[in-house]
Design brief:
The complex is a heterodimer. By secondary structure, chain A is α+β, with helices and mostly antiparallel strands. Chain A has helices spanning about 30-40, 45; strands at about 1-5, 20-25, 55-60, 65, 80-85, 90. Chain A is globular, with a radius of gyration of 12 Å. The termini of chain A are far apart. Chain B starts with a strand and ends with a strand. Classes of the chains: A alpha+beta, B alpha/beta. The interface between A and B is medium-sized, with 18 and 26 residues. β6 (about 90) of chain A pairs antiparallel with β4 of chain B.
Chain lengths: ~90, ~130
């Protein structure tokens, strides 16, 4: 499946600089894994070692948070728009 | 420098007061030179008096709204309910964007204190905040 991926400002330097890129994959996990092989510098910001979504990364497919669609198993269909949104958080953890 | 008007400032402070006893938070939309155009309140999805996390749905809407009207998401604000308006080590660790303005509101004392910081390479620097009407 072909989809477009919106890249957040903070990840652009490590992902070629573009704000929108074309991606291929049948699930969110497959798309993210391919990104980590193409752009190894962002691996630790996208996925955990066990392949699950990083705690501080929100991923939307169109208008839906993939945490409610099966996480990395969320399905991608042609022309979907995937948005990566690193969590905005802070405080005395 | 961060520039905002008194309506923006009051909206930021009101959001933080409404969130009590938890930390309040929200996003700043505006121009790349640090002029705030919109303040977007968020729920604190961390639901905590010690940490905050912007609702990712609000974050998504903020980016879309910014794209639609040709502005940018330029920063975030949150409150410290019982400490001064200085970034904690975690605030700094979790502040990855050197182009953003990180506003902290201290509700510890009256009058409420609002300060803004830039964070670069793990170090926070205070910046002037200009309120214009």
């Amino acid at each position: 499946m072909s989809a477009v991926l919106r890249v957040p400002t903070v990840l652009r330097p490590a992902m070629g600089g573009a704000s929108v890129i074309a991606v291929e994959g049948s699930t969110v996990g497959e798309v993210l894994f391919k990104l980590t092989t193409t752009y190894p510098a962002v691996k630790g910001q996208l996925l955990n070692d066990d392949g699950t979504l990083h705690r501080f990364l929100n991923v939307y497919v169109n208008d839906d948070d993939v945490r409610y669609l099966g996480g990395v198993n969320a399905l991608i269909t042609n022309n979907d728009e995937i948005t990566l949104l690193p969590a905005v958080a802070g405080g005395l953890w | 420098m961060l520039t905002l008007n008194s309506t923006h400032r009051d909206a930021i402070i009101a959001t933080c007061i409404r969130a009590l006893p938890n930390e309040g938070c929200g996003l700043l939309l505006g121009s790349a030179d640090g002029v705030v155009v919109n303040v977007l309140a968020s729920a604190n999805v961390a639901d905590s008096a010690k940490i905050y996390e912007i609702d990712p749905g609000v974050l998504l809407r903020a980016y879309r709204r910014a794209d639609e009207v040709g502005i940018e998401v330029i920063g975030v604000f949150h409150s410290h309910t019982h400490s001064e308006a200085l970034p904690s080590p975690t605030d700094i660790d979790q502040a990855p964007d050197p182009s953003w303005h990180y506003v902290i509101v201290s509700l510890r004392d009256l009058p409420v204190e609002l300060r803004s910081f830039r964070v670069l390479d793990g170090s926070a620097t205070s910046e002037p905040v200009e309120v214009v009407d």
